[in-house]
Amino acid sequence: MKQYTKILSAFIIVALTSACGDTPGQRAVSGGAIGAGTGAVGAAVLGANPVGGALIGGGVGAVTGAVTTKNQINLGN
Question: Which residue from 29, 35, 53, 75 lies 20 to 30 Å from 67 (Cα-Cα)?
Fold first, then answer.
């Protein structure tokens, strides 16, 4: 159960930080980068393959960033 909590926490972080940027493209890139980093670290902590974690996290972050608008998640300047 502890592993699932860590995974869920990582995806929540990705979702909350993926909308950094003014355009959907910018948010997709920043979300992908943040998601890849979060996924790699999360996978390493859980004893899984960090490359796979980076791919999954990057994909989730990029999609989340692309489908959100600037007004939905605003982390400031």
Answer: 53
